[in-house]
Each structure stands twice: as C-alpha cells, then as structure tokens.
Amino acid sequence: MNLSTLVTPMIRQTLSADVYAQLRDLLISGRVMPGEKLSLRSIADALGVSVMPVREAVHRLVAEQALEMAANRYIRVPVLTVSQFREITSIRLNLEGQAAARAAELVDSQALAEIEKIHEAFCAEFAKGAPDESRLITLNKELHFAIYNQADMPILLQIVESLWLRIGPIINYDLRSGTERVVQRVQASHHAAMVDALKKGDSVAACESLQDDIKSAAEFILNTGALIVADAHKPVEAD
C-alpha cells in the first residue's frame, strides 16, 4: 500500500496530534485492512515528518487497541476475533440505532440536504461500471457520521467513534471485495431507507434501517472467514 496517496503531508511544528488524527481517520474510515503491516518510517515518509511524532501517535493508538506493535517493531492493524467482532457489533446496533432514532427527531433541513447529497454521491459511485472502492468507503463513513452528528449526543458520538476505531478496517470488507452485495447495491438500499426515515422524521424506521445495514454487513463479514475464529457463529441481534 502506498500511504502517500492516503494521507496529507504535515507542515506544522507540533505534529503528534495531527499524525494521530490522520492515522485515526484511516482506521475509522476503513482505508487500511485488518492484518496490514506498516512501519514508523513508512508512515513518517508518507506524512513528511520525522519518526518521533509518528511514534507518539502510534503509541496512543496501540493503547486504544486500534493498532498493534509487533516484536520486530512493525505496526499491524489488528485482526478481530469472531467474539470481539460480535460484541462490538452488538454494541453498535444499540448505540448507533439510538443515534439514528434521535437524529430523525432532530435533523434540520440543512443537515438533511447534506445527508442526501452524500447518499446521492454514494449511489452515483455505485452506479459506475468500476466504482472507486476508496471513495465508496469514505462516503459510507461520512453518511453514517453525518446522521449520528444530528443526534446531538456528544458522549454517545465519542463512544461510537471509539468503536469504529476498532472495527473500521473490517467494516467495509464487502465494499472492497466486489461481491454480490456490491453488485446488487445492498448497502445503497439500506442507506436509502435511512435517508427516507430521516425525511419523514420516523425515529423507529431510522433505527431499524440503520440496524439492518449493520446486521447485513456483519453477517457477510462473519461468513467470509476474514476474522479469527474464536467461537461458533451466531446471528447478530440487537438487545
């Protein structure tokens, strides 16, 4: 992977927070894959900084379990176990469903227009003969968080971001894989249902459509074998 195409070189003197923010966004957006190996030097070169601020940022992300530091000093994007994935997904169903429901009650016309714009861009990209996977992944994240931001629940949003930091690299596995789900535009149909619920101010439908989106992607990922098998497969359900 060429990191220089995914990040923006730094020019400020105090860099650790900026490096952390860019690496965090890469993980939340799912633009790096589980098991992918990086090095302090490759990250520093891509960002145009010294190794020191990169090391500080990476140590923060390791503490948050968003990255792993291998014995040979390489940094690795963690591969979740089935049990970890199922637990995080269960929490997401509840928290993100709550955020979507609340957003349907509070969203204003300006925010709704922005959400629709992101959804239309997502659908337009999907409609291409060869969709840009990176753009689909970015738009998927932007749509979800544009909705969650409307819930006006900053603590909940912070928790959701921490969950995406752990699960982001695997969330978009189907968007990268070119499977039948992509061909049939399953993700776009779930997003359309979410947007429609927001337009109607229907909190129940917003919650259900958001949860359907999460469950559909989760079941696909669980069936791919992309996770470390730690327990028997069970359906993902909201509490």
TrEMBL record:
This is DNA-binding transcriptional regulator, GntR family. Residues 13-80 form the HTH gntR-type domain. Gene3D superfamilies: GntR ligand-binding domain-like (1.20.120.530), Winged helix-like DNA-binding domain superfamily/Winged helix DNA-binding domain (1.10.10.10). GO terms for molecular function: DNA binding; DNA-binding transcription factor activity. InterPro entries: GntR_C (IPR011711), TF_FadR/GntR_C (IPR008920), Tscrpt_reg_HTH_GntR (IPR000524), WH-like_DNA-bd_sf (IPR036388), WH_DNA-bd_sf (IPR036390). Pfam families: FCD (PF07729), GntR (PF00392). SUPFAM superfamilies: GntR ligand-binding domain-like (SSF48008), Winged helix' DNA-binding domain (SSF46785). It comes from the Bacteria. Coiled coil: none annotated. Keywords: DNA-binding, Transcription, Transcription regulation.
